Amino acid sequence: MTSDEAAALAPSAERVGLPAIFRVFLTLGATSFGGGVVAYLREALVERERWLDGETFLAGLELSQILPGLNATNMSVYVGERLRGAPGALVACLGMMLPGTIVVMALGILFTGGGRVMNVSTVLVGVGAAAVGLLLATTWKIGRPVIQRATDVAIIAVTVAAVAYFKLSLAVVLPTIGPVAVWLYRPRAMDRLRPPTRGHETPK
After folding, report:
1. SS3 annotation, the chain
2. Residue 175 placed within a domain
3. Does some domain include residue 201?
């Protein structure tokens, strides 16, 4: 791909209007559920709207997971700011939060008024199963190009074991495993892991 083609595909603040940003995130906020929101975000922002490429989406997702708050809300601020600055971040965040706010307030009024919705737990179990499936599919799609060495698999395995088996909090896992991963993937170490390029070998 040439530089002109890459520039044509790159997100542009002039091409993306505030109403479009609000509409997309309002739809995401109204149709996404739980952990599966990552799948909805990627499908909308990378595959359908093409506002981000895969690497940029992954970078935004990593930042959203590190910062306090909901991943979906953090991601909306990240994308909105990237597209249209502070107004875009505000519009995207409002669009993402508005549907959930309305639903929670409506349900709260119903339950406070003595209403009772039957089989709610059954519905939530079904939604949770669908969200897990979407999250697994998205994790595989995002992680497949990144996982290339045994070191990648080892970091994943240690992280999963710490959270799933030993039941450690993310507040413990991130400050311990995170710095180790950063140290392993520091620029000098990555340069040593890359195979030498022909015609540019270091003379002995």
Report:
1. CCHHHHHHHCCCCCCCCHHHHHHHHHHHHHHCCHHHHHHHHHHHHHHHCCCCCHHHHHHHHHHHHHCCCCHHHHHHHHHHHHHHHHHHHHHHHHHHHHHHHHHHHHHHHHHHCCCCCCCHHHHHHHHHHHHHHHHHHHHHHHHCCCCCCHHHHHHHHHHHHHHHHCCCCHHHHHHHHHHHHHHHCCHHHHHHHCCCCCCCCCCC
2. no
3. no
Structural domain including 11 reads 3-117
When pLDDT is cut at 50, 70 and 90, the band that residue 36 belongs to is low
Q: Is residue 110 part of a domain?
A: yes
* Residue listed under structure tokens 């597209």: 83
The answer to whether residue 168 sits within a structural domain is: no
Amino acid at 91: V
Measured distance CA(88)–CA(94) in Å, rounded: 10
d(CA 110, CA 57): 38
pLDDT above 70: residue 91: yes
Question: How many structural domains are present in the chain?
Answer: 1
pLDDT tens per residue across span 162-178: 888 888 887 888 888 88
Is pLDDT above 80 for 152? yes
Q: In angstroms, rounded to a whole number, what is the distance separating the alpha carbons of residues 71 and 188?
A: 31
**What pLDDT shows up at residue 124?**
67
